[in-house]
Amino acid sequence: KMKHWLLKSEPFNSSWDKFNEDGRTFWDGVRNYQARNNLREMQEGDLVLFYHSNEGKHVVGVAKVVKEAYQDPTTDDKNWVVVDLVPVQALDNPVTLEQIKTEESLKDISLVRQGRLSVMPLKATEFDKILEMGTK
Predict the structure, then answer these.
(1) What is the mean pLDDT of the chain?
(2) 121 membership: H or E segment, kind and range
(3) Which residues contact 69 (CB under 8 A, 6 or more apart)?
(4) Which of 55, 88, 90, 105 has CB atoms 3.0–4.6 Å from 62's, for a disulfide?
């Protein structure tokens, strides 16, 4: 069964535009156990909301998992993994953290509850709601 996720990216590290230029990327730099465990749960075909943190603070697009968790090539530490993603589509209108916080049906998502977490699961209904908010 397909799962849904939200990934936080700092635009100066890996922006949505750069991701689209590259066409595919591995998601590295996760150094938090809860986020890592979430990466390990991702399956090929899962859909991911791409969120710019720090600058912008908004969901900008949708990506898809094309390769499941494997050793993070940026470190020798076996604790850390990456997944491969490809871009699917940009949102017509980025959905801001403020908009998400004021939407009652999204009050339980980790983005609101656990501000530091960089990789988080979403329910299908939450994923769909954010997509709907980002569509003209």
Answers:
(1) 93
(2) strand 119-122
(3) 39, 40, 42, 81, 82, 83
(4) 88
